[in-house]
């Protein structure tokens, strides 16, 4: 992983180039105040004052500075995220104003996933200097957590199965002196039958398991964080077409988010009793695969008629939610790359967010907007509960009427969430299809910083 700590440093007056950020609305006035040679140079480079324009400006001798025309708000983490890819290695400081949230974008713009390729020889690090050294540790932790999501999701499924998710959880447990428990084999079959059913068709070395990590003072409020860990989703016997299977390495994106959020909680030593749960499986095809029409037992005692083996994420999450509720949490958050319906409705950038508590919903949405990690709330609409009715079991896992797919998936999970406990379900894409400044194409964290900001406000 990129050494982000080296890229954001306290400004102690060391030698550095200057970055001047000019808003498009004041660019014309700014330009009038520049020497004639600078105006001519900018004209030659076709800098017109449009947002995104950038240039190198000469100084005296071998000195130079950078210009960025930017319309991003001062609180945006992406304000100067275009610069590390434009500027050569070296140290930089803003000509005016504080770095603030822009430090995160500066770091994430230098993220690279190079597990399968030779490192890009684009020079050394681009270091940003800040007058607020107290903010460095938090910014670096956020960058590391985001990079963890990106790394795990970008990794090919051949190298990211249930065992590898377990290894990631074990690393976190050792780093923060947490307790790790892994349930597999007969204990999984008896105790978590839906997790076992979904994952039992996989090869032995990719066998299903429930990964649990507990950390913190038992006297502190208990917070459960759950992540869907489907390490590859073929669709099962209801097999996906090739186009639908292409990105299914990312179907463990919920687990990646949960691991990253847990790392932030433990790294900041929040005053909580953290309970991390990751049902880790591969939804494979074999003679032992679960079938359409099977009636599945559950940890909660309900019976589920399986109407679609490609609606497996909600099954493994159901058992994990039940387990989380048994330990009397004060708050439950789950992340899952759950439904294509959420992407159709909201696209890749907005996690469909379902919350059973108005205070929690308000907190999540407000802080998400504040930290530029937006969420969009969809309803837990009681009127669609009838869509989950079964003729032979307590409920089905997936209606076939084509309506409100993200909502009905959330309603299914609600049957297993602990009653009377604030619960948030984030149906996230975990993938960025098109690159933006500081945000390369590939695995991405959506809703991570929003949940973290909410937890910090409540439990710092």
Automatic annotation (TrEMBL):
<dbReference type="InterPro" id="IPR000819">
    <property type="entry name" value="Peptidase_M17_C"/>
</dbReference>
<protein>
    <submittedName>
        <fullName>Leucyl aminopeptidase family protein</fullName>
    </submittedName>
</protein>
<dbReference type="Pfam" id="PF21337">
    <property type="entry name" value="Peptidase_M17_N_1"/>
</dbReference>
<dbReference type="InterPro" id="IPR048816">
    <property type="entry name" value="Peptidase_M17_N_1"/>
</dbReference>
<dbReference type="Pfam" id="PF00883">
    <property type="entry name" value="Peptidase_M17"/>
</dbReference>
<keyword id="KW-0378">Hydrolase</keyword>
<dbReference type="GO" id="GO:0005737">
    <property type="term" value="C:cytoplasm"/>
</dbReference>
<keyword id="KW-0464">Manganese</keyword>
<dbReference type="InterPro" id="IPR011356">
    <property type="entry name" value="Leucine_aapep/pepB"/>
</dbReference>
<keyword id="KW-0645">Protease</keyword>
<dbReference type="InterPro" id="IPR043472">
    <property type="entry name" value="Macro_dom-like"/>
</dbReference>
<dbReference type="GO" id="GO:0006508">
    <property type="term" value="P:proteolysis"/>
</dbReference>
<feature type="domain" description="Cytosol aminopeptidase">
    <location>
        <begin position="308"/>
        <end position="315"/>
    </location>
</feature>
<keyword id="KW-0031">Aminopeptidase</keyword>
<dbReference type="GO" id="GO:0070006">
    <property type="term" value="F:metalloaminopeptidase activity"/>
</dbReference>
<dbReference type="GO" id="GO:0030145">
    <property type="term" value="F:manganese ion binding"/>
</dbReference>
<comment type="similarity">
    <text>Belongs to the peptidase M17 family.</text>
</comment>
